[in-house]
Amino acid sequence: MSKKKHRKAAGSSGKPTLPRAAEKNFSQSIPNPPPAAKGQFLGWLGLAGIVALSFLMSFHTLIDTDIFWHLKTGQIIFETHRVPHQDIYSFTMAGKEWIDAQWLFQLIVYSLYRFSGYPGMIVFGAMLTAITWALIMIPNFSSKKYIFVIAAGLIALLAASARFRLRPEILSFCYIAMEIFLIGQFRRGKKWALYPLPLLLLLWVNSEGLWPIYFVILAVFLSEELLGVTGFRITRYLQRPSPLSPKKSALGLGIALGVSIPLAFLNPYGYRGVIFPGILFQEVSFPGNALGKMVQDLFNPFTHLPWFDRSAFLALLIFSTLFFANLLYRRRLHPAATLLWLGFLLLSLSAVRNVALFAIVTAGLVLQILAQNRDLELFPFPALARRLRRFRLPAGITVVGFIIILATGIVTSDFFVWDRTLARFGIGALETEYPIRAGQYLKEILTERGKLKPLKIFPDVSASGYLIWIGNPEWKVYADPRLELYGEAFLLTHAQAMGDALAFAKEDRKYDFDAVVVGSFPIVSNLILSLYHDPKWALIYLDGTDVVFLKDKPGLRPVIEKHRIDFKKGFYRPIPRDLTGAWLASERSERGFLLNLLGQLQWALPDFEAAVELEPENPEHNYDLGWTLNMLGRFSEALPYLEKAASREPEMAAYQIQLARACAMSGQVNRAEDLYLQILQRDPMEIKACTDLANFYEQMKQDRGRALEQWQKCRQIYLADPQASRFAGEISSALDRLGNKK
Fold this sequence. Notes:
It is a single chain. The chain has three domains: 31-417, no CATH class; 436-563, Rossmann fold; 581-737, Serine Threonine Protein Phosphatase 5, Tetratricopeptide repeat. The protein contains 34 helices and seven strands. Strands 4-3-5-7-6 form a five-stranded mixed β-sheet, with helices on both faces. A two-stranded antiparallel sheet has the order 1-2.
C-alpha cells in the first residue's frame, strides 16, 4: 500500500498518527505476524464461538418474573384484537389507566407459545440474542485484528449475560445493535442504511419502553456530523469513515430523525404512550423513590451483581476506559462514540439492569472504531505493540479455548450456577422459580364442574405473574410486577404488609383476601408464622418455593377441611421432576427453612440432610442442618456441620454463635467461651452473641457475677441499637432474676 493510501485509511484528515520516520521504523521493528491462514482460522473460529455463546446463554429455562403475565396479556390481545388500556389483573387498581408499552413483544411470545409451547419462546429469545451479537461482531470483524475484536466482544457478552432472559428488553438489545449497525453502514457510504431506521423506531416504540434510546443515539451521531460542518479547528482530529461530506451525512441523519419523530406517536396510546417512558424514568430514578429501593434490578451493580458478572463488568469498564483514553491521547477523536460510551457508563453505575445496555453499546461502538483504524493507531508506544504482537497466536488460542470452556459450562448448566441465576440449559419453566406446583394445586382443588372459584389473592410480586397466567379472569391479585401501575404509597403499603402481620391485617380488613401465596423469603417469615397460628387462615400447601393459605370462609370451608395440612398426619411434598444438583439442593433447603419456621423440626431435618448430601461444601446448607440439630438437642451431631460452615464463612456471626452453642452443650465449655468472646471482639454490638454468652455464664459456668456483668452489657447494646428491641424482654427478665433493677 502506498503512503498516500495508508494515510487515507487512517482518517479523513489524511494526517498520519506518527511522523513518517517513526512510522517506518515502527513497521520495520514489528515481527511478521503469524501465517495468514492460522490467524484467519482462529479469528473466524472465535467470531463463530461468540455468536454461538450468545445463543447458548439465552437458551435456558424461563426464569424471568414477568414472563407469565406477559403471556397472559399476549393471549388477551390475540383473542380480542385489542391492546388493554386499563388494569385487568388486580382488585386494588381495577380500571386504572395502564399503558402496556410491551404489547408487541407479548403478542409475539404468546403466538409462539400457542403454536410451539415453551420451545418456540426460548428459541426466539436465543435467536434475538444471537442476532444482536452478530450485528455487533460480524460487520466489524477483521482477521488482522481478531484478538482485540474477539476479546472485546467476549468481555461485553459476559457482562451482559445476566440479562439474557425472555423479557421485552431483549428486543431493545437487538434494536440498539441494529441502530448502531445501520448508522455505521451509512457513515461508511451506504445510503440504503438510513431507510430502515424509521421502521426500527416504529417497532421499538411498540415493543419496549426503552425506545427513547433510539433518539439519543441518532441525535448524538447527528451532532457529530454537524460539528464537522462547522469547520472548527477541532474537526481536523475527527475520525470520519464516511466518503460523504459532513453536510450530506448530517442532512441524511437529520431527515431520518425528522421522519422518526411523528412515528413515535403511532402506538395504541398516542401521546400518552410517548410521554410514558419519561414518567417512568422519573419515578424510578428520583432519589428516595420506593420503586428504586424495592426492585433489585435498580440496585448498585458493585454490590448486587454476582461475582462472575461483576468481574466481567469491571473488565469491560477498565478495557473501554483505557480504549477511549488512548484515542484521546492519540487525538483520534470519535465524539459521538465517546459521549454515548460515557452516558451509558454512568447509567450502568446507577443500576444493575443498565449494565447490559452499557455492554452492548460499548461493544458496538468500540468494534466499529477498531474496524475503521489500523493496529498502529491503537498503541501509544511502539515497543508495547511490538511485544504484544509476539503473543498474538497464543493469545488467540487462549481466547478460543476460553470460549470452548464457557460453552461446555453452559451446556452442562454449570455456567448458570456460576452467575447465580440457577437457570438450566434447555427448554421449559423451572418449577423452583415460579409457583407452578402451588398454583396448579390451588387450581385443581378450587375447580368444580369445570369452573374455577374466584379468588382475591395476596401474593408476593414474584408469584403473582404465574397466578395471573393460570387464574385470570377468575383470580385477581393484590399486586403484581407492573410496579409502575401502583404508585409509591401503595408499594410501601405492600412492602409493610409482606413483612408485618399487623400491616397485613389492616389490608385484609380493607380488601377481605381469600388466599395468600408467598415465597420462602426471609422478609415474609413473620407473615407466614402469623397466618399459620391464626385460626382464620389455613395452611393448605407448602414446597421449597411457596406456601399457600386459604381464609376460612363459607365458600372455601369444604376445601379447607379436605386439604388443610396436619403435620401429625404428614403432608404432600412434591419434588419437581428431573431436578438435581444445586437446583434440588436449593429446593430442599428452602423447604427446610419453611418447616423450621413453622416449628416442624422433624420434617425439616430430612430436607437439610438432603441439601448437604447434594452440596457437601455449601456453608449455608451445613449451617441449616447444624442449627436444626442444635434445636433438636443433638449437639454432638451438629458440631461437624457447624464446624464446616464456620470455617467456610468465618465472618458470619450466626454460624459462630451456633457452633459456640453446640460446643457448650457438648462439654467443650472453654472453646465455647472463646468463640463467644471472639465474636464480640469483632463486633461488640452483636446482641445475640452477648445474650448467649450471658446465658452461658449463668447456666453453664454458674458464675452469677460474670453473668450479671454480661447482661448489663447486653442492656447497653439494646439501648444503643433500636433494632435489638426483640431482646428487651429477655434482658429485663435476666437482670430482675439476678437482682439488678437498673
